[in-house]
Amino acid sequence: VAMKFTDFVVVEFSRVGNAAYFYKKDGFNRDLEPKLTSGVRESELKNTEDEYFINKLNHSRNWTSRYDEYMANYLQGYFHYHH
């Protein structure tokens, strides 16, 4: 699932061992959104090398509280926040 916010997008992968990927909205819209079709490989949406990649959070212990912290910072535009 892709969740769009004012300045960033979160792509959430639900399978065990996956993560939530955070991207700056402009780059996501330009490069990744066109790939959001059925049949797309997950790896095509896990782009950590481009300048619009912000961060990824693995679904590990206490991930929901870490997710809340990152979201609070990213919603304020603090994309350099790290736990």
Descriptive keywords:
83 residues, alpha+beta, four-stranded antiparallel sheet
The DSSP helix count reads 2
- Round the mean pLDDT to the nearest integer and report it: 90
Largest beta sheet: strand ordering: 1-2-3-4
Q: What overall form do the CA principal axes indicate? A: globular
Low-confidence stretches: none
> Could you state the order of secondary-structure elements as H and E?
EEEHEH
- Structural category: alpha+beta
Q: Give the biggest beta sheet.
A: 4 strands, antiparallel
Radius of gyration: 12 Å
Per DSSP E runs of 2 or more residues, the count of β-strands stands at: 4
Strand content range: 15-25%
Percent in helix = 25-40%
From the N-terminal CA to the C-terminal CA, the straight-line distance is 24 Å
Description:
With 83 residues, this protein is α+β, with helices and mostly antiparallel strands. β1 (2-4) and β2 (8-12) form a beta hairpin. A four-stranded antiparallel beta sheet has the order 1-2-3-4. The protein is globular, with a radius of gyration of 12 Å. Helices cover 25% and strands 24% of the residues. It has helices at residues 25-32, 63-75; strands spanning 2-4, 8-12, 19-24, 53-58.
Compact description:
With 83 residues, the chain is an alpha+beta fold. Helices cover 25% and strands 24% of the residues.
Q: What is the secondary structure topology, with strand pairs?
A:
Elements: E1 2-4, E2 8-12, E3 19-24, H1 25-32, E4 53-58, H2 63-75
Antiparallel strand pairs: 1-2, 2-3, 3-4
